[in-house]
Amino acid sequence: MQPRDERPAETRPLLELEGIGFDYARAPKPGRRTLNGVSFTVPKGQALGLIGQSGSGKSTIAKIVLGLAKPSEGVIRFDGKPIDEHGLQSFRRRVQPIFQDPMDALDPRMRIGDQLREPLLVNFRLSRSEQMERVVAALASVGLPREIADKRPRQISGGQAQRATIARALLLDPELLICDEPVSALDMTVQAQILNLLNDLRAKRGLTLLFISHDIRAISYLCSEIVVLHKGCVVETGSRESVLLQSFDEYTRTLIASVPSKGRRALSGRGQDEDDASFKAERAASL
Q: pTM of the prediction?
C-alpha cells in the first residue's frame, strides 16, 4: 500500500504525481521510456499547465491520472490518498476529462441533451424532468441556450460541441478537470472563448485544472504554474513568470523561441488588465 499524504487538507495539493514511470514497449531501449520519474503537484483551485511537444508523454499522463493506463512505477495521490484507494465511481465524479476533439467525445447519433443526461442516470436518482433541469442549467453555465439540448453534434459548431463536453463534465460537480489539448482542434477565436470559459469556471467554482497542451501561448494565458515535459522527463517546473521569463533550460527556451515575436511580447506582458475578460480574449486571439 502506498503512503497517504498526512498534511492538512488546506495545505496539500489536490493532485500529486511522484516518480511516475511508464512504458508502452515491453522492453524499451535505454533512454526511450515513455515516462521516466515524472513528479509534480497541482495545487487546489489553480490551473497547472503541462507543456511539451508531441511524443513527450503529456497525453499518457492524462490517461494514467484518469485510470485509463497503469504506471509501471510511482504513485499518484488525489486529495491526499493514492488514487487506487478511492472508489472508482466516486473518483470519476470528482475528476472529469475534457478531450481534444469534441466531435470524437460526442456520440453523433444522440441528441446533446440525452448525452448530458447519461452521467446523471448513472450517479443520481432523478426524474427525467429533474435531469433536464440540470442539463439546461449546465448548458447555460457554459453559455449555450436550451435549444442545443435538442440538436445532434453535426448540427452544432466545434466550439459549441466543446462547450457541451465541458457542460457534461460539470454536471457531476467535479473538483479536478483534466484538459488534454482542449482547444487545439478549434480556430483561434474560439480557442480564446474556451480559454476564457475555463478560467471563469475555475474562479467561480473553485475548480482545479491540469491543462495539457503543446501551445505555450495557451498555457501562459490560463495557467499560473507550468511543468515542461521533454522525452518523458520533467525538465522544468515553476511559476508562469519563472518558467517563461527566467528559464535556463535549453528545451524550454526553444519552446518560447518558437512563438512569433508578437506572441513573445504578449507572454512577457501577462498581468495587465487581468480583470478585463474581453481584453484577455482579444490578446489570446491575437497570438
A: 0.87
What is the distance between the alpha carbons of residues 251 and 236, in angstroms, rounded to a whole number?
9
CA atoms 253, 258, 263, 265: torsion sign: positive
Asked if residue 176 lies in contact with residue 96, where contact means CB atoms within 8 angstroms, the answer is: yes
Q: Identify the band that residue 11 occupies on the pLDDT scale cut at 50, 70 and 90.
A: low
Amino acid identity of residue 32, one-letter, is R
Name the CA dihedral angle for 205, 219, 182, 139, rounded to a multiple of 10 degrees.
30
pLDDT of 279 reads 37
Report whether 77 contacts 4 (CB < 8 A). Answer: yes
How many Cα atoms sit within 13 Å of 89 on the Cβ side? Answer: 6
With a CB cutoff of 8 Å and minimum separation 6, the contacts of 26 are none
- CB neighbours (10 Å) of residue 241? 15
> Which residue has cell 427525467?
128
Domain covering 15-286, topology: Rossmann fold (3.40.50)
What is the distance of C-alpha 271 from the center of its chain? 22
Element (H, E) at 113: helix 112-123
| C-alpha cell read off for 124 | 443520481
105-145 pLDDT, tens digit each: 999 999 999 999 999 999 999 999 999 999 999 999 999 99
d(CA 44, CA 172): 18
DSSP 21: E
The three-state secondary structure class of 174 is coil
Domain layout of the chain by residue ranges: 15-286
* Residue with cell string 459549441: 160
Contact assessment for residue 160 and residue 47, using Cβ atoms and an 8 Å cutoff: no
Helix (H, G, I), strand (E, B) or coil at 224: coil
